[in-house]
Amino acid sequence: MDIIKQVISDNNFLGAIFSTIAIILLGYYLRKTGKVTEQGPKALTAVLMNVALPALAFNAFMTNIGPETFTIGLNSFIFGFVAYVLLIVFSYIYVVKYKGDKLDAMRGLTIFGSTTFFGIPIISAFLGTEGTLYANLFNIAYRVFLYSYGFILFSGLKLEKKNLSQIILNPIILSTFLGFMIWMFQGSLPQVTIGSGDTAWTGAILRLDKTLPWFMSAVSYLGSLSSPLAWLAIGMTLAQISLADATKDIDVWVYSFVKLLVMPALMLVVMMVFKSMGFLALDYVAITGIVIMLATPPATVAVGYAINFDKEALFSSNASLISTVLSIVAIIFWLFVLTALHSAGIV
Fold this sequence. Notes:
Blueprint: H1 2-8, H2 11-32, H3 40-60, H4 67-90, H5 100-111, H6 115-146, H7 149-155, H8 161-168, H9 171-184, E1 191-194, E2 201-204, H10 208-211, H11 213-224, H12 226-239, H13 243-246, H14 250-277, H15 284-294, H16 300-308, H17 313-343
Antiparallel strand pairs: 1-2
Helix pairs in contact: 1-17, 2-12, 2-17, 3-6, 3-9, 3-11, 3-12, 4-6, 5-14, 6-12, 6-15, 14-15, 14-17, 15-17, 16-17
Pfam family, one: Mem_trans
Membrane topology: Multi-pass membrane protein
Subcellular location: Membrane
């Protein structure tokens, strides 16, 4: 009971939850009342994916590197690849009931969640810069698997060169790799000293938060737009679609249950076991960020694959809609669970 009281009285926790729900509802209201046109969500998403999230990713790496931060960051990066291999294996639980195109759609939409668009803005609001850093490192594997295994799963074809360019030239991936390289090798880069006496700072010339603070102020402002832009776009998108038809498909509910509750629970157990073994050990911040990303609705790219290759297009669209609504509740649930586990000293 004391742990529950501690969780629900945490202002950071309450602030993140209220902000998420309130801004999503604001986006819903603005679109539903016609104050924003149907092009609004697309415009916000374009700014989010090409400007705000890359800025957020890069800014997260403008920090000192310590032994613990380095270890957790590297483990998050490596665990990302382990996690997606495990998710591919875990997704075969659908074999019990489904086969053919429905099986491929269920598996693909379960493996690939909206980690970038939906997850990272919430992680940024709740876990701050450290959480964002670990989340972006974990998410590198997501991009690699999404444009390779995801494409092959839905298309039945071999990986094409154009998908490699989507991985490499994606603005978020580029900014993540650039920031990661600066962060990791800041001790080996040319060093400069700023200031004098007790206030002097010596570090890598590419630590732009120190050497070009005016430039990083602009980057920081752009990055801070990520959460509100994402939540507004989600609300506006929900306002454009009817929930009535989507709720009638029982498979959508099966999918949502597995995607939002079963898979995050399985991966949470894996992370806790790994931590107890000292293998790719992650701390509370990294574990929470990963669980949040796993409890997201299907990635837009994955749904696009399903529609483009005619693999249960209607089901995929309905699953995206219903799970988007339910994921808000699921993420709140997981934030509560993980905060409670952390307070109890379990994670």
